[in-house]
């Protein structure tokens, strides 16, 4: 019996040892599998890591090679597009005579070679629906095919024929020929400025819903140049020059602007709009202004809520003429019949789709082109950089600020303009708390109080910081303090803080003048406000300044607006203050 018990124990112990051995082997096997998996994962991660940087390095080397080749191409062909050759040519002398004789208004110049003829024909069909538009067009034709085709198809449009062998072949963005055409455009602009000729520079990869000439931008003397701009209305890229459609007023400041532009384009690998952005934001003169997005917008408008259709929409997301025309057709903006005639019915339908906000952009029908993907990626990187602390501050010379307009013991109100498709607006709902940082208080108002005759000038939302300051000044009721507020808005419906302004008007020492930049009937008159139609140009400013006899000018508004007021003030012995400082 004892032997049987011992045998059973031995068998049990043997079974337990076998189980332990099996578990041990299983654990060792699992450890080996984990080790192999980790090793394999580490290898894949390393391969991906090194592959990424290898690919990045290859792309950098390729871009560097392309840049070197492009600069060499420009230098080897720069004489054929040089300022000297243009100014000394018989063709340019003929152009000046034509401008003197046939162009009472500034012309619009377009550059064209034979490879963009189809797109140009489509553009001219579109713009032919606007009376007088073609009378202001001048095409700089770069080869005989382009010259002869335009002359046959559109005989009434003026040409400046400048045959340029280096621009005969098709070319794409950032290539040597593309850089060369930048230099040619800049030198033509410079030659016209030196002859005292103001002008528009335009591109034909654009759909016109209305004529941009109807807005008479060239009559506004408050700026020297007005450019189309990148991005959207509330984008960080606003007031960045797009460079497709812009107006230049001929004067000494714009001459220097284009002299420096040509110098840089002849030696640097850069688009002309990059240089324009830098010079507009770092030079005091010339005064640069920007066409509002409601008048000129890029292809990005179609991917918004399609509200407030612009006058002009540019398809600037493609890298060559063929792609651009193809994209125009997909969106319903191709207007040339097979027999070469213009399809006016399609043109009117395209205008209606824009006005109704029904331009079709289904991804199944309009897959993003390679050009558009590149631009979207590039602009995403740019906006990320602009939003980065410290770096963004130096890349963008202005940042958004919010000013309290009413303050209590434990609260204050901050006005924020709402945009239906705005990125910040969309984040307002659901926010539980916000952090604000200084400066706080009314130290600036206390300083202005000592001036005795301050003149506040505001544009649009720039009125916000002045509400609290003026309220503080009026509460003091000083006998020798006189205040003038000049407020420019597009229309009376755009006036902000109207009730505050009406209350301010009841004070004996407060005056307000509201300038409406969009012409409208004077049916919004108010006994305590002076309401006028017109912009705040140099003549208006001088008249208002002299009447009030201001001792200090405090301004808040868009960068270009502040530059204008600064230039106006330079003619007077008066201190000029930007707000916020």
TrEMBL record:
<dbReference type="GO" id="GO:0016491">
    <property type="term" value="F:oxidoreductase activity"/>
</dbReference>
<dbReference type="InterPro" id="IPR001433">
    <property type="entry name" value="OxRdtase_FAD/NAD-bd"/>
</dbReference>
<keyword id="KW-0812">Transmembrane</keyword>
<dbReference type="InterPro" id="IPR039261">
    <property type="entry name" value="FNR_nucleotide-bd"/>
</dbReference>
<feature type="transmembrane region" description="Helical">
    <location>
        <begin position="40"/>
        <end position="61"/>
    </location>
</feature>
<feature type="domain" description="Oxidoreductase FAD/NAD(P)-binding">
    <location>
        <begin position="456"/>
        <end position="566"/>
    </location>
</feature>
<dbReference type="InterPro" id="IPR005069">
    <property type="entry name" value="Nucl-diP-sugar_transferase"/>
</dbReference>
<dbReference type="Pfam" id="PF03407">
    <property type="entry name" value="Nucleotid_trans"/>
</dbReference>
<feature type="domain" description="Nucleotide-diphospho-sugar transferase">
    <location>
        <begin position="133"/>
        <end position="328"/>
    </location>
</feature>
<dbReference type="Pfam" id="PF00175">
    <property type="entry name" value="NAD_binding_1"/>
</dbReference>
<keyword id="KW-1133">Transmembrane helix</keyword>
<feature type="region of interest" description="Disordered">
    <location>
        <begin position="1"/>
        <end position="23"/>
    </location>
</feature>
<protein>
    <recommendedName>
        <fullName>Cytochrome-b5 reductase</fullName>
    </recommendedName>
</protein>
<keyword id="KW-0472">Membrane</keyword>
